[in-house]
Structures
1.
Amino acid sequence: MKLLHTADIHIGMENYGRVDPATGINARVMDFLRRLSDMADYAIEQGVDLFVFAGDAYRTRDPNPTYQREFARRIKKIADAGIPVILLVGNHDMPNVPRKASSITIFDTLEVPNVIVGDREALHAITCRRGQPLLVATAPYPLRTALISREEQQGKSLAELDTLLQNAMIENLQALAGQARQRSDVPAILAGHFSVNEASHGSEQNIMIGRDAAVPRSVLIDSIWRYVALGHVHKHQSLNRDAQPPVVYSGSIERIDFGEEHEPKGFVVAEIGDGPTTWQFVPGYRREARPFVTVRVDVREQAEPTPAVIAAIEQQRDLSESVVRVIVKLRQEQEASLNDREIVRALEGAYFVAALQKDVERTDRIRLGAVSVEALTPAELLERYLEVKKTPAERAKLLLEHGAALISAMDGASVD
């Protein structure tokens, strides 16, 4: 049995993009949609038996109708190929009150064939593409108001509420494992959208909706699960190394910002059979995620800062498909001579120029307190300067000795 696991598509992320005239949709949104199309093609062409989407279809809780249409088209394409699709509700899909519909509830309302919406903790008995039986436990993003009663929340601090929520999550996950254990003759997987204590977080914290809660990894490492498909954390990672069951964050399919510049983006394909579950990360099918490139240039020792920056840009690989930012480290007195227009012109071939950032080394003012400069000797001024610059003691002592010698020599020359 082969399953494709993905999460955190975030359709609606418009950062670093302009409207695509061919579609009328923001070009960065099209990046995310193309990646979803690629996964749909992979699922169909490679004979995937189950498609697991572990939450966060959209950027916001109230996506515009165009984005909903484009997401639905691609999900329907997978489902129409006879591949069951699990759509888990993430925090970006979830309403802020329990009884409102989520942004993906419409699939359930319309009873779209082969699409199961995981909007609550439940165990679903499904039949995969080739007729294989499978149990899928769904654990959507934990909504505090749904898991903790108003009475329990009364008078509690945020830390106490976090503990209550974590305990409720653990109880629910253990209950799902217990239900699956009652049907141990059928393989079972868990799909969840939440944080795990041991996970390494990424840029999802910059776009977080609501206060987060996490569970310990130990609660997920239950032998009843053949695979644990997680969403919510954008960085692809395995939390159980090579042990069973695999506990995997697929990661987001596209980069959200420069915090994810060096993170691989893709999806996971897992194989469940008679032996241990195997899985692999697929970084690109048809196309890779759009590159983000930071050009860092230190021109503090350069007489002409602008040509040095342009030379650093020209040394980069082809930037025509990249979102680019340039960070220039320079001295305060060089700032006026840095020609922004020429640097931006050198970046004309880039897909999108995110920023030209100047890291200016400001000259420290020596703090003299109530003492005037005239009241200090050259040696005392040097000592104050070294203090401000936080020069290590041994080096400061050496510099003061050399400084004293130079000052003495200069004084002698002045007398002559």
2.
Amino acid sequence: MYDLIIRRARLVDDTLADVAIEAGKIAVVGQLAAEASAHKQLDLAGNYRLSAGWIDSHVHCYPSSPIYHDDPDLVGVSSGVTSVVDAGSTGTDDIDEFYALTRSAKTNVFAFLNISRIGLLRQNELADMADIN
């Protein structure tokens, strides 16, 4: 018995398929037997598309940034995005704190390190050469 069966989902190639989930992972993609069972079943009747998780390659999700930041789960899993890439919100001064904060997110968070050690504390983070080391 599966945890979840999604029936008649429309895939990116426009075919219909069933998807079975077991222990939080995709167990089967294809045509499941009608008697296949699950704790929960959802029939999309071909009216909804189902795809792999999306990746947003440019976000800012460091909450200590005074300029801009988003909650990684709000722009992530709540929007169908399974992974986000922070585009340099932090530099070497804050990367450890940023990393620790990302561990509580359901969304996979990856990051580019800002060339400035202070990160995006201000929009001219590259103005002072002392901050680039």
3.
Amino acid sequence: KAMKAMKARKSIVAKGKLSKSQVYKGRKVKTVGGLKASDITKNKYGKFVSKKASARGKTNVWAKAIAAARKALGLKGFVPINKGPEGKALYAKAKTILES
């Protein structure tokens, strides 16, 4: 007599757009890239991201220089860097901050 078909094994690997969310919430064990729940955090927009990548992004020296330059020049709102008089001033200030 033939053997009865076995039930398909439930995957522990999360795939697709919501994979990090599934892992973080404990529905799956890891992502395709190998991230476990302990490697995932929520960013300020509520998206689930890699802790390592998030930390690396926060150490971006150019972004910090631009933020400091904007504060020093008192700029508010959108200012395209190196375009127009405000943008050129912003770029120059950021360069000096970066070099100091």
4.
Amino acid sequence: MQENEKKQVVVTVTGRDVPGIMSGLTEILSRDGVKLLDMEQAVTHGWLSLSMVIRFEGSDISDTLVLKDLLFKAKELGVNLDFKVVEGEAQVRSTAHQFAITLMSEDLQARHVAAISAVLARRAVNIDSIRKLNEGGLACLELITYTSSDIDVGALKDELLKVASVFSQLDIAVQRENLYRRAKRLVVMDMDSTLIQIEVIDELAKLAGVGEQVREITERAMSGHMDFDESLKQRVRLLHGFPESEMKALAERLPLMPGAEVLVKTLKRLGYKIALISGGFSYFGEKLKDKLGLHYVYTNNLEIEEGRVTGNIKGSIVNAQRKADLLEMIAQQEGVSLESVIAIGDGANDILMLKKAGLGIAFNAKRKTREAASAAINQKTLASILYLLGITDKDIEEVAR
């Protein structure tokens, strides 16, 4: 090999992972005149994949001898070693061209990965690394990808979502891979059908004997076919005379969304602030605040007199615009940028809030909300949102200790 400062050698090592492989190989590379430029390693089911980029810089170093010694050491260690001479300087990738693509399914299969990777190939997007985030069977993969130039991220996302729609229960999220993705500090979420499994006002209506009327109004409002303020006033009027004692009983048995406690507990231990901003009622929001240790709760306040609902709302209505404004207000109070905020919701009145946040997640949401969000997932557990932050099941277990 002729000496050339722009020539580099990519060394790849594969085999059963045992102690001493890294030590044995890097001892040879520690000789004067050998410069280590890059290194990456992964172990999958006990099988090692190690890559190193080196450059020979000294005139008194025999590159042939070093490579020969590496081959002998690899044989001694019981691993396979190969090398390739490449031209050019080490590539420095701009984070502006990097994306994190998260795939989620109860049973993630090769056909899912094949369909997604075909889209990436057509758009000249390379996969830099793949990481399994869950434990047990394959259910979540994180692909870190890059391109050599700017691409239309919206078009890429739309095409990936179109492919995902062909499969049942396959969710895909596309995010810029940069510091902001890993530096989120505030999570704002809706209450009904997001943090809890029910729509509280519908449950109250059933108990009050006006379930069908209220359910129809709720559905129209959540689908964006009716003004939220007016729909809320109409529904609350139907609750006139409802006893506070029954509200208290319902508040005691609110069914949390599966994974809600794991999500909140994990994020709190990692230093996140958690806010509940909902068009629901404070009677129930405050109960959840106490139960989960939420930092902020903003909800609508039902007027109650002499132990019964009057049919009126006290104070300003927490509607779509108010939700977005409250998100921004809390972010300012906490001293975090909007880019560092996560918003989670399912209805049309969450759209402005989702758009305001750096990461807006539509959780088991209506179509209009999914289309407006930066990420949409339809999983059974709220804890799956942690995967979008690159948090693994192992991380969750460690935080829980």
